[in-house]
Amino acid sequence: DRISEGLSRSRQKFTEQMNVLLDRGPNLDDDFWDDLEETLILADMGGSAASQVVENLRDEATRKALPDAYAVLDRLNDELASTFATTEADPFGGDAACVLFVGINGAGKTTTVGKLAKEGADAGRKVILGSADTFRAAAIEQLEEWSRRANVPIVERKRGSDPASVCYDTIERAEADGCDLVLIDTAGRLHTSDDLMRELQKVVNVVRKRSKAPVYTVLVIDATTGQNGLSQARVFDKALDLDGVIVTKLDGTAKGGIALAVSHELGLPIYKIGVGEGLGDLKDFDAHDFARALVG
Ligand code: GDP
């Protein structure tokens, strides 16, 4: 599949490193565990997830459930899958939802909103878009284009308008028109990062107060930026108390491990993953499939 294809180069590198590990023999000594942890970190999985995975496997080995390095590597897949944070609440599961998309410019927010609008409309939902990136004129035009493609209404105001009031208007219109899936695109850059976080906090507060439908704040991150994605996620989560994450550009040069790093360290579920620029390129996330694509 597309995820497996996208991560094939990265997976190949990982397999090579694992083979080097195994060439030294099947013994589970300290060097083995240290090298395994380092390999996971090199695959972008982050220190917190990597040490958790190694600790769990090491515990199993101590209990004699895993006799040697081969058995450990056979278990790695499942262990990675269970290290992802999970949730029952899914904004795209079919119940009414109001979803705010946040993330830095270029992460893939607008594209993701467009793909989800089409997916929702195709599934028979009443979708509405809100364009709360009032800082960048091109962002409004880009979302308009997606609204045409998905054939769903959009609420927009001129450049420079108050983004919180665009959100308010979007939710009002959604309620008046009986929309059950509200997708709101937000700004990814202002004059400074502090300005951006303050603006987004205001937006999130207004939306949480105004919306009758459950509100989800979803961070979109570009997997090709590697550990940068984790730093961004920390900043956004601290300011906005995120509900979940969408990871894009897993079709390119990304290592993919960043999805695990963010999900584990911040306790956030991965809702969807992006594997291309087109309408059909947003996939449901499955931890086992993803782990398999990461390490084979
Ligand atoms: P925004 O600034 O966060 O709204 O980002 P955009 O939605 O404008 O996306 C930035 C660029 O990334 C665009 O050229 C998109 O086509 C591209 N993009 C978004 N998602 C993906 C993806 O999953 N894979 C690839 N290859 N490109 C993507």
From TrEMBL:
Binding site for GTP: 103-110, 185-189, 248-251
Keywords on record: Cell membrane, Cytoplasm, GTP-binding, Hydrolase, Membrane, Nucleotide-binding, Receptor
Keyword rRNA-binding applies: no
One Pfam family recorded for the sequence: SRP54
Domain annotation AAA+ ATPase: ranges: 95-252
UniProt cross-references to CDD domains, sorted A to Z: FtsY
Signal recognition particle SRP54 helical bundle domain span: 3-84
Any one Gene Ontology BP term: SRP-dependent cotranslational protein targeting to membrane
Residues forming coiled coils: none
Top EC category: hydrolase
GO CC field: cytoplasm; plasma membrane
Subcellular location: Cell membrane; Cytoplasm
MF-aspect GO terms: GTP binding; GTPase activity; signal recognition particle binding
Main localization category: membrane
Function: Involved in targeting and insertion of nascent membrane proteins into the cytoplasmic membrane. Acts as a receptor for the complex formed by the signal recognition particle (SRP) and the ribosome-nascent chain (RNC).
Subunit structure: Part of the signal recognition particle protein translocation system, which is composed of SRP and FtsY.
PANTHER family attached to this UniProt entry: SIGNAL RECOGNITION PARTICLE RECEPTOR SUBUNIT ALPHA
Similarity remark: Belongs to the GTP-binding SRP family. FtsY subfamily.
Protein name: Signal recognition particle receptor FtsY
Species annotation: Slackia isoflavoniconvertens
